[in-house]
Amino acid sequence: MPSIEAGVPSETQRPVLSVKDLKTHFHTDAGVIKAVNGVSLSVGEGETLAVVGESGSGKSVTGLTVMRLLARTSARVVGGSIEFIDRGGELIDLLALSDPGMERIRGKDIAMIFQDPMSSLNPVFTVCDQIAEPIRIHQKLDKKQARAKALDLLRKVGISDPESRIDAYPHQLSGGMRQRVMIAVALACDPRLLIADEPTTALDVTIQAQIIDLLRRLQQERRMAMIFVTHDLKLVGEIADRVAVMYASQVVEEGPVAEVLERPRHPYTKALLECIPSGRSADGKRHHLQPIPGTLPNPLAPPPGCRFSPRCGFAAQDCREVEPVLEDAAPGHVTRCLRWKEIAL
């Protein structure tokens, strides 16, 4: 079966972001780490794409590469393209932009919610200072106007008593409030694309549910394209339209959420689903979790053939010798597996 590209949004949705064959490598003293190795993703207007995988799979590095936030690290983009369509319909090659050109887009047209708000928010500036900064830079409002808009954003993200919270410092807020402030910062200039990098990881389940509901509502109201990065497949069905599963720097499966979660075509996706607690069955028996054996491969020396083969119960000799390519398993559903037809049975 011929290979195809992953990451194509539905025909009715306009692609706001198109990432094609992206390769981001880190050059270290020990060797080259191919953190993102041939990743293709697209997301349309008003659509949410979830990017799922274990820590170290390349999810966050993909988002940071799109934002061009790896310049001061050892990372280098050695291949691929990142194309973005702005509000005026202009197609922009993000990798070809100058640093000043990217600064005009970052925080305005493309924004990011980072994993840990306590380390991402500046401890020496107030909530008002941090929300107002992108407003003053990109929308050229004065201090009074920016403060009024910051206050309105705090209301929209559900901060209680925003009039008193606006002059608080990050350490004076709870974890859930800090995360809401991070969302307010990201939405300050009404971005066309929002990248949410594991925005609920450090929160308890109640606050997590509130943040998911908030992001979903704001995304629908503003018709933003959103990339939701997570390691938790349970959240995917609640917020996303499509899902891309990453393993060891590559997309191994991608498609509509219902299709992928109900009919996985890659053993890694299937294994991730078996790790989700499901309570008790109708006969009262407890479902036992099925942990994935082994660990992620050494990024400096990935195994030959399929990178998941050392941990895969379906692996055969050809899986250890032939590197699979993405194949069409169903309409809009692709997988990187030589034995996907057997998994589908």
TrEMBL record:
Task: Tell where it localizes.
Answer: Cell inner membrane
Q: Which residues form the ABC transporter domain?
A: 17-273
Q: Which GO terms describe its cellular component?
A: plasma membrane
Q: Describe its membrane topology.
A: Peripheral membrane protein
One GO term of the biological process aspect: transmembrane transport
| SMART domains associated with the record | AAA
Q: Which InterPro entries match?
A: AAA+_ATPase, ABC_Ni/Peptide_Import, ABC_transporter-like_ATP-bd, ABC_transporter-like_CS, Oligopep_ABC_C, P-loop_NTPase
Q: Which UniProt keywords apply?
A: ATP-binding, Cell membrane, Membrane, Nucleotide-binding, Transport
Residue runs in coiled coils: none
Q: What are this entry's molecular-function GO terms?
A: ATP binding; ATP hydrolysis activity
Q: Which family does it belong to?
A: Belongs to the ABC transporter superfamily.
List the protein's name. Answer: Oligopeptide/dipeptide ABC transporter, ATPase subunit
Q: Which organism is it from?
A: Nitratireductor indicus C115
